[in-house]
């Protein structure tokens, strides 16, 4: 089992650890997952997400080669712009979701999920011509996220105002408390803030500097584990690999058609167009449930008790105060307000299709 | 780990404290700490009868659902309705405001056979 370079910090904070994607990761700290969630919504949460991978695709023809392998439009991106995209297989299923930054004319920085790091790298390397450089930068690059309504203020204070000068969904290079960083003004919580990429050798130094600066400025900030990261992304309607997206889920049913550029060629497009023409068999919905906590794997039924699907994720949502699940159900039963049921310990509990997302992300407000 | 020295305990981490002829039942500080934030409690119906060790309810934490086992046989005389709105009372005050049910024991002597606070503390420390 791998650990991240901030392991000693997490241990000192009293974190509880659990395996995730081959890493023993901090799941929560002593204040608890719900308080960490709320801290991120009201001020600043710090996330050690170094388990995530980074791949650099560069050289003549890099953009064209990458464009064919990912679902979204990328060739019109400006330098430093960032965009969400999907890595699909030939059948149109989702192998992974990616954040792609264009760092230069032929320089593309791709952020991949921890569990897919090796597979994504192998796929990109295998399908991109050898004349284009594809490098796995995951080991030398440290990755943390700083998220929350005061995250920009905190990062500005350590970087001479660099982050507030950076538009949403774009990258800036800055020295953050003497550490050379790439800051992407994005995140996975529904809050403003940034994801930071910097030399792994300085992993702890920058983490400490952020907490110290927050304390000095009177900005409430603290470490947040993977449990709260999950509830934050869930409320904000963001997919998690292995739940709302997976190699047995296509982007159309996962409501990610917007991340597909139908005007270009990409792997999986032909299959998706066929699926589109045939009509979807199921669609992702968010359900608000009463009478228990819905969880992954729980059956979803219609009001007559007929099985129609299953929950792919479910939890108590601390900010919106609901017990909610994501599930795939037939499109005819996917309209907001449709009354369904979720089976919790053998009992059918009332569930209503809710408007997504439960929590409007900062960038859409 | 906090221990209520007036209560007796089950190996499954519930406590029972005498209150007149009845028993008040909850989960231990060790249990609430291990579970983490409690977000939902499934309570039994008042008047229901349970055998010793029977599952009488469920506490749901952020990540998992766990059965509650009754330390002694008896009939439920009251449930803590405050938990419906504030299940975190179990995290905040597991021996006080976070109590779960009140019970009329079938056999008043059964309580004596539960673990003493000292014995439970040892078991919990090794858990």
Question: Any key phrases for this structure?
Answer:
heterodimer, A: about 375 residues, alpha+beta, Gyrase A, domain 2, Alpha-Beta Plaits, Elongation Factor Tu (Ef-tu), domain 3, 3 domains, six-stranded mixed sheet, six-stranded antiparallel β-barrel, 8 helices, globular, B: about 130 residues, OB fold (Dihydrolipoamide Acetyltransferase, E2P), six-stranded antiparallel sheet, 4 helices, about 20% helix
H and E order of chain A: HEEHEEHEEEHEEHEEEHEHHEEEEEE
Q: With helices defined by DSSP (H or I, 4 residues minimum), what is the helix count of chain A?
A: 8
| Average pLDDT number of chain A | 97
The number of helical elements of chain B comes to 4
- CATH topology type of chain B: OB fold (Dihydrolipoamide Acetyltransferase, E2P)
Characterize the main sheet of chain B: 6 strands, antiparallel
Proportion of helical residues of chain A: 10-25%
Number of strands of chain B: 9
